[in-house]
Amino acid sequence: MTADRVGLGWRPELAAGILVNRERIDVVEVIADDYVGAGRRALHALRTLARQVPLWLHGVGLGLASAEHVDGRRLDGIARVVGAVEPEGWSEHLAFVRGGGVEIGHLAAPPRNAATVEGAARNLARCRTVVGALPLVENVATLIHPPGSDRDEPRWITDVTAASGAPLLLDLHNLHANAANAGFDALDALGRLPLPRVGVVHLAGGRWIGPGDRRRLLDDHLHAVPDQVFALLETLAARVRQPLTVILERDGAYPPMEALLAELGHARRALAAGRRRARRAAA
Amino acid sequence: MTTARFEAVLARLYVDDALRRRFLADPVGEAARAGLDPGEARALAAVDAVDLEMAARSFAHKRARAPRRLGWLAGLLGR
Questions:
Q1: Is the pLDDT of residue B79 over 50?
Q2: Bridge partners for A96 per DSSP
């Protein structure tokens, strides 16, 4: 079995720190949308980076989980970036980001029902045709129970991945936040997800917002990864056999690089502890 | 259920403060005026008002963030 890997989301503010600490960072993840419309020089630079360190491209703007068809021009743009950079793989969110020409500006959880399962499967099939490979699909955080839903999140994700054949990028902080906000048990939900499909894992942090009796956990990527998320990572590593690529996402309020590297170390220890649990259980 | 029209109304609710105020004052009526059928209107009207407001503010904050930069990687790698 290939070893588990741990890495960082590539951001301009972190780039120098990543490059000088390459021996402690196995893989990087780059926002694909940043390079849609980029010139040859920028794409060549990213391709060069991909030759130096294992690199994943991560999309944020396709809005695949929608009754609307994925926008052809946006998808062509992603295909151009993937073709130019030749990453290990690419990923996108199970979100809708626009409707009726209105841009929401971020990742909204779609209604969880048969129509969005069908729409996501159709859009993912289109991705495979245009880009040449299916993306890993990521669960999103939500502050709101999506109106129009008729099933819970684990069931909906299982249905989408079964209908599309897509592998899963499991964001454990999104799972943790949704569990906190909707009042379900994250560990139970983890057990109901299609875990053999998980190839990549996201870790992040967030903060509590809202009035005292209605607090909600916001996945803002501006804070350290909480212990509960590392515990979920350990459990995941204990339950799956395939190697995992774990990416720490940080989008601002950057701490010293050493603090991020310490979080990567924490992730490695959680993975190792989970693998040990699995070996003990099998013995 | 869930049509492109339903998603369009939901997207507008997330970004249009005035529409959201009207909707929260009369959820079923505003959903019907937006062209949703009675089933869709009831589904939309069931949304939690506090959660809707928090989600809308979160999206507004994301929209307000600075645009991403390009070219920095090429400079960093000297190309």
A1: no
A2: A108
- Out of A34, A96, A105, the one facing B7 most closely (by C-beta) is A96
- pTM across the whole model: 0.95
Distance between CA atoms of residues A136 and A1, nearest Å: 20
Interface contact flag, A113 B60, Cβ < 8 Å? no
Distance CA A213, CA A267 (A): 32
Nearest CA in chain A to B52: A144
Which H or E run includes A271?
helix A257-282
Which residue is associated with the tokens 């062209």? B35
CB contact under 8 A, A113 and B44: no
pLDDT tens, residue by residue, A202-248: 999 999 998 888 899 999 999 999 999 999 999 999 999 999 999 99
Interface predicted TM-score (ipTM): 0.89
Distance CA B36, CA B55 (A): 22
Domains in chain A (CATH in brackets) are 5-282 (3.20.20.150)
Name, in order, each residue with C-beta under 8 angstroms of A279's C-beta and a sequence gap of 6 or more: none
Residue B17 with chain A: CB contacts under 8 Å: none
